[in-house]
Model the fold of this input.
Amino acid sequence: MSIINNSATDVEQGADFLPKFDAAGLLTAVVIDSESRGVLMVAFMDQEAVDRTIETGFAHFHSRSRGKLWMKGETSGNRLRVLKISVDCDQDALVLLCKPAGPTCHTGASSCFYRELVDGRLERAAD
Amino acid sequence: MSIINNSATDVEQGADFLPKFDAAGLLTAVVIDSESRGVLMVAFMDQEAVDRTIETGFAHFHSRSRGKLWMKGETSGNRLRVLKISVDCDQDALVLLCKPAGPTCHTGASSCFYRELVDGRLERAAD
Done:
């Protein structure tokens, strides 16, 4: 990968997809449910995960703990079909609008965000 | 800050708020508009940003480029009033449901996610 210095105008206003990865080679991906419009999960993508997601139409991420590419649902079957990818102003975060094949969270909850912070304690949110 | 090893069960199912910061001391925060329910922005929080957000009711973040705490809207006035904070399974990401005082993006767009990826190119999304 070559080092390219893109101007802020190119990055913010241009039509070129110029994903900006951090020092660890990652950007943030937020997965939104195409039906409920709620946030299902947050994960990280490297260039390979971005490429594989675009090629296959299924969400792929980079596992920081395992240090490798993974397709969401590769073992559980609960894949995320990507319907739309939105890009933020500085192109270091993506929003993936997805149709999930099943519960997204490994705990069995539909979303990983199943708790709310109330007076310093976590309370289970309505699923 | 002491090093505490919390069990996965405590972290995933418990009522204790045990935010998990990465090696850089950060976790991911996703800001959702309380009216449109769309994603407004994605940023990072350290312990100080989490504490200040809870104390003040306005979203604070940690700037990775400037290496310091900032309150969203501290110069523009476009603050984000936090109505609800949701926490994910492993407590390394937060969703902030917010009422924005004005456009969230520094470009003037209501959301930082004003472009969609279509056939490898970015197209302006409806604002």
In short: The helical segments of chain B are 8-13, 47-56. The interface with chain A takes residues 12-17, 22, 28, 30, 32, 37-39, 41-42, 54, 64, 84-90, 93, 95, 105-107, 109, 112-117, 120-123, 125 of chain B (CB under 8 Å). The first strand of chain B starts at residue 27 and ends at 33.
